[in-house]
Amino acid sequence: MAVDDLSKLVSLCKRRGFVFQSSEIYGGINSCWDYGPLGVELKRNIKDLWWKEMTCRSDIVGIDSSILMHPRVWEASGHVENFTDPLVDCKKCRQRFREDAIDEKGKCPACGGELTDARSFNLMFKTFMGPVEDAASTVFLRPETAQGIYVNFLNVQTTMRMRVPFGIAQIGKAFRNEITPGNFIFRTREFEQMEMQFFVKPGEDDKWMEYWMNTRMDFYRRHGITEGKLRFHQHGEGELAHYAKVAYDIQYEFPIGWQEFEGIHNRTDFDLKRHMEYSGKNLNYTDEISGEKYIPYIIETSAGCDRFLLVSLVDSYWEDTENERIVMKFHKDLAPVKLAILPLMKKEPLVAYAKEIYDNVYNETDFNMQIDFTGSIGKRYRRQDEIGTPYCVTIDFESLEDKKVTVRDRDLMTQERIPVESLVKYLKDNFRNQN
Ligand code: ATP
Questions:
Q1: Cα–Cα nearest to 388, from 77, 38, 95
Q2: Which of 98, 260, 306, 309 to mutate to test the pocket of ligand 1 (most atoms within 8 A of CB)?
Q3: What is the pLDDT of residues 108-138, one digit of tens each?
Q4: pLDDT for 365 beyond 80
């Protein structure tokens, strides 16, 4: 059975060290979460896969820009003026809501009370730079990583001698003072984005938009996300952002319904034009071969790292009632622990032999591994299933004699006895030949 309720995942994540509530011993802080030892491995795997996918090609390079930027950036980007949500308050219970998220306009979804008229609420977090807290020292925590790429467009293009079409990728934190955060890590006020901005010649934007839509959807399919739970949603007139010509979301069918986890946008030349206007700097691109000069169009792929992490948790969760176990069927590249080494008993020389095998596999693969001595083998398998470890290697007393170990497969639950000297090759082959 797949996960039908996010609370089951929240509890598994806490129980097994994926995600903890932030500042829990103080009663927690709304919508903030901490990644535990397994969550951080999963997140790192997601970021590594995305980074490799984007930058292991000659037409995309990466950057890491700062979270605090010149305040004028957010005027140029349109965030000061437009990055607002309509906020309504309930006159009775005083709860706040996003007006566009309420089904029955005018009525409080919590208590049925009367709502105030909507006010625009800017979602950017403000802070002060330096010791004086006044308007002149106000800066914002970036609400998206994209602007750090736009303002560095020419720096990157000239230093790396990039020719259009080319892209710049970045992974980093973004902050939004969301009115109604919630649903675990789905909507938080601090989150991580994986964004890639692809600069193209005007007129070639439609072609590249299609290319990136296909490439991004393919990325999720290749990493094991259930085909029937993925779809595109095109932004209609009312939804389209002020900068966009065309926009599509990649959506996943969460237990809370179909929701976006990546946006692909044709942002036209809006961003570079605006930064030219507000900074007074010339951001025109000159093609060094053809000599053409123009302001490139931008196709953006903007994925939420935490949101995709939630997709991967939801999509992997499986209650296997037949075998009385919960299995996280992570794609092997995403699995936070790749291999568990399980000596049958905590006794020498089994323990020493298990450690020797552990070191050997680690040196040859750099897998994140666990070695577990406690409980029955059945219990230990269940523990590994629940954190999605693709393989367990059991070492018994016979192993000391015949130099063979038992490899147990998470999904098939099959057990195969193989010579220990071929273990690394066996693992490498199986990790390579997934799907
Ligand atoms: P929404 O309409 O849900 O507020 P958005 O359309 O504003 O989202 P984008 O600005 O396109 O989102 O952001 C790109 C991606 O960043 C989203 O697809 C999502 O994965 C992620 N993201 C945006 N806001 C949040 C948030 N508050 N918490 C977690 N992830 C977020």
A1: 38
A2: 260
A3: 998 999 999 998 999 999 999 999 898 889 9
A4: yes
The whole-angstrom separation of Cα 214 and Cα 222 is 12
User: Which residue owns the Cα nearest ligand 1 atom 10?
Assistant: 144
Q: Does pLDDT of 178 surpass 70?
A: yes
Residue located nearest, by CA, to atom 28 of ligand 1: 187
Does one domain contain both 280 and 145? yes
Task: Report the separation in Å between the CA atom of 59 and the middle of ligand 1, taken as the mean of its atom positions.
Answer: 26
Q: For residue 358, count other CB atoms closer than 10 A to its CB.
A: 20
- Is 348 among the domain residues? yes
Give me the pLDDT at residue 304, please: 98
Report the helix count and the strand count for the chain, using DSSP H and E.
Answer: 13, 23
b/e map of 45-58 (b: 16 or more CB within 10 Å)? bbbebbbebbbeee
Residue 11 has pLDDT above 80, yes or no: yes
CA atoms within 13 A on the CB side of 122: 14
Residues having CB closer than 6 A to ligand 1 are 144, 176, 178, 187-188, 191, 193, 260-263, 302-304, 306-307
Most distant pair of Cα atoms in the chain: their distance:
79
Q: What is the pLDDT of residue 201?
A: 97
Query: What is the span of the domain harbouring residue 35?
Result: 6-69+141-314
Residue 365 domain flag:
yes
Ligand 1 atom 25, closest CA: 187
Q: The tokens of 168 are what?
A: 């710049």
Gap from CA of 31 to ligand 1 centroid (Å): 14
Instruction: Determine the residue of 47, 184, 193, 219 to mutate for testing ligand 1's pocket, defined as the one with the most ligand atoms within 8 A of the Cβ atom.
Output: 193
Q: Amino acid identity of 117?
A: D
Which residue(s) pair with 89 in the sheet? 96
Residues 360 and 230 in one domain: no
